[in-house]
Specification:
Layout: E1 4-20, E2 25-40, E3 43-57, E4 63-64, H1 73-96, H2 104-118, H3 124-132, H4 141-151, H5 157-172, H6 178-191, H7 196-203
Helix pairs in contact: 1-2, 1-4, 1-5, 2-3, 2-5, 4-6, 5-6, 5-7, 6-7
Amino acid sequence: MIIWGSKGRVRTVGAGNFNCPACKAPRQYEHKKVQRWFTLYFVPVFPTQTLGEHIACNACENTYTTKVLEYDPAVEEATTKALVAGLWRTALIAVACAFGPANMAQAKVINEGFINAWSEPSEISDILSDCRAAPSTGMETNEVMNRISSLQPYLNHIGSESFLTLARDVLEAGAGDEMEQNDLLKEIGLKLDMTEAHIRGILYS
């Protein structure tokens, strides 16, 4: 009697070094394939179908698709930095325009704050151009808070404090009502998950 059938089998088909997303460091990996093999008398003879493949980190043992071999943390960091810098800039412009058109002094504060936060300038003429796109009566509070909400997930405790401090300076450089400005700043601080005591410390420092 000839006994034949099939069975699944995991094979290591490659190995090397990669940047493990979980370890956040260079690690060794194994490239594994899951295949269905034809068996004769229960002995695997040849593969008949590839069921899947993955990359396994030898350190943390997490598995990933083969796309992970293209992962470059430096590229990801640069992309994230550009994204957050853009959100930071648009949020500050919204703050500057919350009570009407922004002035040159406010644009300079935004520019200086951008240099301090991101080590690069944001042209004052570009800032003023973006501000001119805001309604002449001032940007709606909901729109200001929407921009803050988009930024908030990327800020840690220090980032939130730095943003609120800069938002305070931007508003002080304008000509709005101080009480209205403080109300907006308190709302921004709360949106950034800051405590009321921390917010007061920044506003009245």
